[in-house]
Amino acid sequence: MSKAEISQFGIEELLLFLKDKQLIDDGIEEKMRKEKIDGQAFLELDESEFKIIGFDTVGQRKTIHRFISSLMDESEVSSPTSKDFFADLKDRVLANSRGSIIIDQLNKDGHFTTPNKKCFVSICTNILINVSLNCGEKKLYPSKLLKIELAKSIVRCFPALMSKIRNCKGYEHFYDPATNTGSIESKLKTMRYKLPIQEKARTQAKIKW
């Protein structure tokens, strides 16, 4: 993970990431949300500001400073790594026989028909599930971080699918971390419905970044 990547995090993405790394507690999370601290603001916080938002002890502040110092600068990130989970998303969609057809239609018309949108979401959700399983997560229960990364990758690889709604990042219709909604989450819920009851109890796995 690089400083450049974190600088692009919205408030909720940042909080999810820091909680996954066990760097913040609920109290700090609420203060960061109240102060509207996103990824760029987080990287610019100084010692006194960390104290204001709840990093009360010297040990806590040393830990967060060590974490920030350990992040790679943009110049150190020369090529996609194994942690770029969806770097090949476009190729994987086009490798699907149905995927190549609906992307041709998207390129031609600039939008999907309803059946093609459902097909596209299904293909992307299956890609997500495979990545999630490779990360050690439970079947059909990918982490929020992965769902965010997939949604961002979709609009990056297929710009015509970016939402034009103001004050949005453009990918929330695929997955919105603030409300845990979107077409990806809807597809996952439909797939979970068919699971045997004993497989529906969730156990959270951690992604190592």
Quick description:
Helices cover 55% and strands 0% of the residues. With 209 residues, it is mainly alpha-helical. It has two domains: 3-76, DNA polymerase, domain 1 (Orthogonal Bundle); 89-199, no CATH class.
Q: What does this protein structure show overall?
A:
The chain is mostly helical and 209 residues long. The protein has 2 domains: 3-76, Orthogonal Bundle (DNA polymerase, domain 1), CATH 1.10.150.50; 89-199, no CATH class. The protein has helices spanning 3-7, 11-20, 26-34, 39-44, 47-52, 58-70, 89-95, 97-109, 114-134, 144-157, 183-193. α9 (114-134) crosses α10. The longest helix has 21 residues, at 114-134. Residues 74-82 and 202-209 have low confidence and may be disordered.
List keywords for this structure.
mainly alpha; DNA polymerase, domain 1; 55% helix; elongated; disordered C terminus; 209 residues
What's the arrangement of secondary structure elements?
Elements: H1 3-7, H2 11-20, H3 26-34, H4 39-44, H5 47-52, H6 58-70, H7 89-95, H8 97-109, H9 114-134, H10 144-157, H11 183-193
Helix pairs in contact: 9-10, 9-11
Whole-number average pLDDT? Answer: 86
Structural class: mainly alpha
In total, the number of strands is 0
List the secondary-structure elements in sequence, H or E: HHHHHHHHHHH
- Helix count from the secondary structure assignment: 11
Cα(first) to Cα(last) distance is 7 Å
Radius of gyration: 19 Å
Count of structural domains = 2
Largest sheet: none
What is the helix fraction of residues, given as a range? 55-70%
Strand content: under 5%
Query: Judging from the principal axes of the Cα atoms, what is the shape?
Result: elongated
